[in-house]
Amino acid sequence: MSIGKKTRNIGKIIEGKTKEVAGKAVGNKSMEKKGKAEKIKGKVQHAVERGKDTFRH
Fold first, then answer.
1. Average pLDDT in the 2-18 region?
2. Which of 4, 13, 28, 57 could form an SS bridge with 23, CB 3.0 to 4.6 Å?
């Protein structure tokens, strides 16, 4: 996995977690759900990239 893709995926995970926590703090269910979805998307993309690395080596 390239450093750029790894950083981007981790950034999405962190951004999603931030939105999720902020949504909980202000009581905004929509923001909370969007944050959770973004966090999951980042984790899935990270796992896909790790899988690609496994097959390359």
1. 90
2. 28
